[in-house]
Amino acid sequence: MLKINIYYFFLFSLLISCNKNLENIKLEYYSDSKKSIYKKTIEFEEYDSVYFYYKSQSIFKKGKQHKNGKKYGIWKLYDNESSLREIREYFFIKNHPERNINRNWFLNKKGDTIAYNKKEKLYDQQEFVNDTLGHRNTSYDKFVFLTKDTISISEYYLAYAYCGSPLLRDFDSKVNVIVDNTNSLKNDFSNINSVKLDTFKYAKIDTIHNADFGTYDLNKIAAFSGKFKTTGKKTIRGLMIEYSNSYIDKNGENSTAESQTYFEKEIYVKDTVK
């Protein structure tokens, strides 16, 4: 009898759990059809997963957003033949809420990355046709982590940032990398002014790593590294700053200018003894 009661209690709990999950799924339909889903939102405690659909019910785009509705992370966009045509990376930066898109990549029908999207409009359905960025160039800025995703507590991680799409290329620009190696920087970078940050200079003057970057422009690439004092999952956050001290402004005056590209990377730090 006890086993039966336990079974029914488990079943009842499972049903409640299922109902709870169902309540966290919101569906929006096209106005001319109650069977065709336009948008599906799966609500989690800290974020939402969002899916948009063509009228054919093939996926248009999908990604995650914060509870304030701001996109973050990787979003994938497909044409109406289900070919992946664009990848967008979003960061919500609290002190710069107008800036959301971080990097993007355009792809051809075969799935190969292309430097420039020749088509002004990729998504030929009225609801999505204007979902475009203000540019059609793929971003070639990149952050490469050379060490494994799991390191020991006594080990440094090693990485580099490369400004492959310099916005200030005509003004003798250079790059620095600013990174938090304390696992303290929030995902919206809102506490950046109160966190201890490490700054790494462009490779041409870097005296810490002395890395050999071959034919890369040494003004546009920078190595960075760090290690942690405690074990567990860590998130390395930071930004690459492209800057110029010889920028010519709209009045023809010599000025300074900069652009930022953000990054984050999860690693796991294990105890050396284990």
Q: How would you classify the helix and strand content by structural class?
A: mainly beta
| Strand line-up in the sheet with most strands | 1-2-3-4-5-6-7-8
The number of helical elements comes to 1
Helix-strand topology string: HEEEEEEEEEEEEEEEE
**Shape by Cα distribution:** globular
Q: What gap, in angstroms, lies between the N and C termini?
A: 46 Å
Q: Could you explain how this protein is built, in words?
A:
With 274 residues, this protein is mostly beta strands. The protein folds into two domains: 2-114; 142-270, Immunoglobulins (Immunoglobulin-like, Sandwich). Helix content is 8%, strand content 41%. It has one helix and 16 strands. It has one helix spanning 2-23, and strands at 25-29, 37-43, 48-53, 59-65, 71-78, 84-90, 101-107, 113-114, 142-145, 150-152, 157-162, 174-180, 198-200, 221-226, 232-248, 254-270. It has an eight-stranded antiparallel beta sheet. Strands 10-16-15-12-13 form a five-stranded mixed beta sheet, with no helix packed on it. Strands 9-11-14 form a three-stranded antiparallel beta sheet, with no helix packed on it. A hairpin with a 5-residue loop joins strand 7 (101-107) and strand 8 (113-114). The longest helix has 22 residues, at 2-23. The chain is globular, with a radius of gyration of 23 Å. 20% of the residues are buried. Mean pLDDT is 90; it is low at 1-22.
